[in-house]
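A reminder before we start the practical. When you read a complex entry, don't treat the lines as separate problems. The point of joint prediction is that each chain is placed relative to the others, so the output describes one connected object in space. Small molecules and nucleic acid strands, if listed, are placed in the same frame. In the example below there are two entries. Take a minute to note the order of the lines before looking further.
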Amino acid sequence: MTVSLSDPLTEPLSETRSVPLLELRDVTRSFPGPPEVQALKGVNLRVDAGDYVSIVGPSGSGKSTMLNILGLLDRPSVGEYRIDGVLTGTLSEDERAAVRARRIGFVFQSFHLMSRRTVFDNVMMPMLYSGVPRAEREARALQTLERVGLEHRTRFLPGTLSGGERQRVAVARAVVSKPSVLLADEPTGNLDATTSGEVLRLFDDLRADGLTLIVITHDAVVAERADRRVRISDGRLTEVESAAA
Amino acid sequence: MTEVTRTEETESARVADSAEEGSAQERSAEEAVPALVEPIPRADRFRFTDLLIEATTDIGSRPGRLVMTLVGTVLGIGALVATFGFAQTAAHQIARQFDAVKATQVVVAPAQAQTSGGTSVATGRLPWDSVERVERLVGVESAALVADVPLGNDTVTAVPVNDPSAPAVAQPALIAATPDLLDVVRGTLTTGRMFDSGHEARGDRVVVLGARAAERLGINRVDSQPSVFIGGVPYAVLGVFGDVQTRGDLLDAVVMPLETARKERALGAAGQLQIRIAMGTGPQVGEQAAIALVPGAPETLEVAAPTASSALGENVQADVNIVFLILGGIVLLAGALGIANVTMLTVMERIPEIGLRRALGATRRQIAWQFMIESIVIGLLGGLLGAALAVFAVVGFSLAQQWTPIVDPWIAVGGAVLGAVTGLVAGGFPARRAARVEPVTALRG
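Here is the predicted structure of the whole assembly.
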């Protein structure tokens, strides 16, 4: 019972609306041992464009493995993963890199900002790989920094910013190339309640703009902001509930 | 079953797409997934300038680390360039000393022409006042007119006895010259004195002996006023000279004043004009001497003047080079290992950055090249610094020694290029290692 939004901006290049944006089918990911570990066991997940999904679960439950597979950073051992109905298992390394660059935005728990580059340069960087027209890049970076409320921090180094600001820079970096989906791995894990609130409000705004969000968290407050909550436990997935859009 | 069908569809879609685009090899990664991403216009793709900027932006961000990386290359390239520079400078210096005599001698002789009978005859003649004529030229330090005096059947002996039963011995050569001869050939007297312009003007019967000729004649001192007998005519021996720096044949000769030879031995013409010149004036004196001597027909004289180049210098240089080249090579190898080590360390340190870039869509190749270019730039930087320091060292050392510093500019340029090549070689392994970093592991934590 997923909700399909019809925002033309984020609607992928699919021919029919019925094709989900992301789809995991019977995905198992095992890591060779000894002992062999099955991080995901026969997972099925369908995410439509515009969805705001939270994936909750204790540590070691396979959350990050799933996010890595969704973000094309890892491959399923068994099963298939489709984006816009296209099977990703057949893509080459370079093709996967191209899809990451242009369709997927990442936000990490530890921000992963480049400490020796300014806020502005950090936000500029993904556009190198995603091929945003050169003439638009600077304006796009400024616009995105404005969007996250950091237009006054463009020339600062990340080390001089607060945790919440840093995570907002990371969000700006993740969305500057206008991806189809934003994958966030414990985005508030290193933040206090106040700054967590800043980031979550930003997610709400992005969601309102029609961006598809998948947030991994073990924080119930964060999870509840999402429309859909998916619980993962011992590598198995269960849909918690569907919130009304 | 569904999956297989889907896969085939995707494949065929991609093949169709690539056929439109041109050859499959030319497709870039960005164009390759038609269903998921559209091709990026060429102008907006990740290009070499982007790579260069990304690779060089952070080079100076840790100056201490940069210096550590540079030291090896700077030393290696510096040693190589300095080696070449010192070798060239030293070789030039050595050759200059060896060549000093050769480079300061000009010989003028009448040109020779072949007769139909196969013998050669002189086409011109040196005037008797040749010495005065050339001494006026700039660069000429001294000059002497020299002639071989034929002995005919006459003998040169130290005693006036003609012993028909004595075994035939080789006669010393008889040479006539103006008094400046010893000065021109830088000869030194071992005993006695040289004849002077007075003897020359009067045509006195005096001689000086070359050391070997004196030994053969049994004359080793002049205080007893010995004489030699040439064709039975006595000549007073004024001195014995032991050492000449050119015209070694003089040591075997009995030398008499030119005027004496004309008077006593009926000398018809001078054989050659020996000129000592200042260093570096060879080509100029060579050009002017014949005109000064025979203005009407300078082509009748042949002038042998030193040229600028020196084969000896090159030989010495080659010997010195090999030794130092090996040393420089070893230092450079150490430098390359230094770059490789530090680049490897940098790669390990920057694994999170590599993971981030891969997550943001950088391909393995782009990552590898980023580190490669960084390494090449550091190598080039080291090469430039090393070459510059080496040139300064050579110039400084030469100044202190009052030598002429010589460094082939191509060696300095080559040093910088070699630095870049060192960076290329040293960066290869770390760059491959960087490209293999898995984003999943790199981003963990």
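Discuss with your neighbour: The CA atoms of residues 142 and 276 of chain B lie 5 Å apart. What might explain this?
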